[in-house]
Design brief:
Blueprint: H1 2-45, H2 47-61, H3 65-76, H4 80-104, H5 108-116, H6 121-154, H7 163-172, H8 176-204, H9 207-210
Amino acid sequence: MALFEYYAKNISIILLRIQEHIQITGAALAISILIGVPLGIIISYIKPLNKPTLAVTNVVQAIPSLALLGFLIPFLGIGAKPAIFMVIVYSLLPIVKNTFAGISNMNAEMIEAAKGIGMTPLQILLKVKMPLALPIIMAGIRISAVTSVGLVTIAAFIGAGGLGLTIYTGINRTNPTMVLAGAIPACLLALLVDFVASLIERMVTPKCFRGSK
């Protein structure tokens, strides 16, 4: 009952926090895709780069998020910028890895057939490899998207806003109602993001590969 009363009294603040959460998550994910997909394509063609690139992204994943935020403050200050940077860093691995896997693990006979009908390497990439790799790439983006929603809650420590601010204010005040008021929308937002991403993943999957998905 107290939770509903809190929402009734603070609905405008909760909606503002949700908006901030979505903005930070959306900006970081968009940049991650713009960096991660081309990088995954590049390392699938330039073989000597794939192991070092994947190794670096793996190592970065091992850095505690709070430590990374603390490290970024002298360079980016506080607020949304370091939060977005942090989410980008943690979102890159699934996108890069899945793009690399999707492009690299292509049927050799299919590629030879494309070459046989006179396709250029760029045409093979855009018309053969990318359409077939899209479901795998989208699966990586889906993982990154859901992870990003959770990471943004931590960004409240550096004044980035979002639902994390409500959660940590509740923790500091020993107010379970306030904690739940931030945590529940964050969970629902993660579920919504996962659902939307799963729909997109299904849409980009060729019908012959969908099966029972």
